[in-house]
Design a protein that fits this description.
Blueprint (H helix, E strand, L loop, with lengths): L2 H4 L3 H21 L7 H61 L3 H15 L4 E7 L5 E7 L14 E4 L4 H8 L3 E3 L10 H8 L4 E9 L2 E10 L7 H64 L3 H40 L15
Antiparallel strand pairs: 1-2, 1-6, 2-3, 4-5, 5-6
């Protein structure tokens, strides 16, 4: 239902009053002037007073209705925005619940993010395990995605990049004109060269640690505002938690693989060591029973090689235990062995 169907505009009321005055003046002109009788003058003045009073009250009433209806429309639009945000967050959680794959979830949900904050492209930068570079993913929201699985497009170092600065500070950044920052940051320079004028970068923060960024770019200058940051912050937080969970899952899988390999190594080492002890025992018996010098020399060679294999098996067991301990520590620390915070002192 349009606003005209609910209430007529105020100018319509006053236009009707003015039209009535014009019609009355024309009628007086046709009737050879304004009537001079006091009763007619009194009726004329009273009629106009009543008409103006009614017009004033009608205008006030309609003005109040207009304000209330505008407030309700604003509240309705705000509610729709909140519902859209909740739907987007729910969709992210559903995708991540099916598969802890942050790039895949990002690609499938980029179109929802664009509905919340209009832009030309949405990007995701994830910090690598060594904490020194980012793998970036881009969703071309204006075109249909042709790839079934996202792949890293550009790898940026943490130094001299806007995404690196945002992850270190853990504060969102809005750049209204990329020309002003193209000389300071490598990634902004790449965006400016590609024709993008505005950038919004939000950190992915989980437990106080920056693990990546959510990036929105547009070809118009001044596209993004602080209100957009408030809309996207819950989504960025979900992506951050999902990425930490993904890293934890990778670390846990690595731990289980190393545990299986270590158990197999220890089991094989035990079997081989048992066979070596049997060989060494038989060599000792042969050496005592047959004093032939050539045989003694051959038996000594076998014994030395047996001891050498035994030392190698001991090294294998020690290495397997150390590797299992390293992977277990990685899992205990959230499967993210390093962070850009360690590199903050280099600036």
């Amino acid at each position: 239902m349009s606003s005209w169907e609910v209430r007529p505009p105020l100018w319509v009321i006053w236009s009707l009053v003015g039209a009535f005055a014009v019609v009355q003046v024309v009628a007086w002109t046709v009737a050879d002037g304004f009537p001079a009788r006091p009763s007619i003058i009194l009726q004329f003045v009273a009629g106009w007073i009543v008409m103006l009073v009614l017009g004033f009250f009608a205008a006030s009433r309609i003005g109040g209705l207009t304000r209330r209806l505008t407030q309700k429309e604003d509240a309705h639009l705000a509610t729709l925005d909140e519902v859209e945000q909740l739907l987007t967050q729910n969709a992210i959680l559903q995708v991540i619940a099916r598969s802890v794959d942050v790039p895949l979830a990002f690609q499938s949900l980029a179109s929802r993010i664009v509905r919340l904050v209009p832009c030309d492209r949405v990007g995701l930068a994830l910090l690598s395990e060594n904490g020194q570079e980012f793998q970036t993913y881009t969703a071309r929201v204006q075109n249909e995605e042709r790839r079934s699985r996202p792949r890293p497009e550009v790898v940026f170092k943490i130094d001299r990049t806007l995404i690196g600065s945002v992850v270190r500070s853990r504060e969102p950044v809005i750049i209204n004109d990329t020309r002003e920052s193209a000389a300071d940051y490598l990634d902004v320079n790449v965006l400016h060269t590609a024709g993008f004028a505005s950038v919004l970068v939000l950190p992915l923060v989980s437990k106080g640690r920056g693990v990546g960024t959510l990036n929105l770019v547009a070809r118009r200058t001044g596209t993004f505002q602080s209100a957009h940051v408030q809309i996207l912050e819950p989504i960025a937080e979900i992506f951050a938690v999902a990425y930490v969970a993904q890293q934890l899952q990778v670390g846990l899988s690595r731990y289980r693989t190393m545990e299986t390999m270590s158990e197999l190594t220890l089991s094989m080492a035990a079997d081989i060591n048992s066979a070596l002890q049997t060989i060494a025992g038989h060599c000792d018996l042969i050496e005592r029973g047959y004093p032939d010098p050539m045989l003694q020399r051959d038996l000594a060679t076998i014994t030395r090689q047996t001891q050498r294999i035994s030392m190698l098996l001991e090294k294998m067991r020690t290495s397997a235990h150390e590797r299992m301990r390293e992977v277990a520590e990685s899992v205990a620390h959230g499967a993210i062995p390093s962070s850009p915070d360690a590199y903050a002192d280099r600036e």
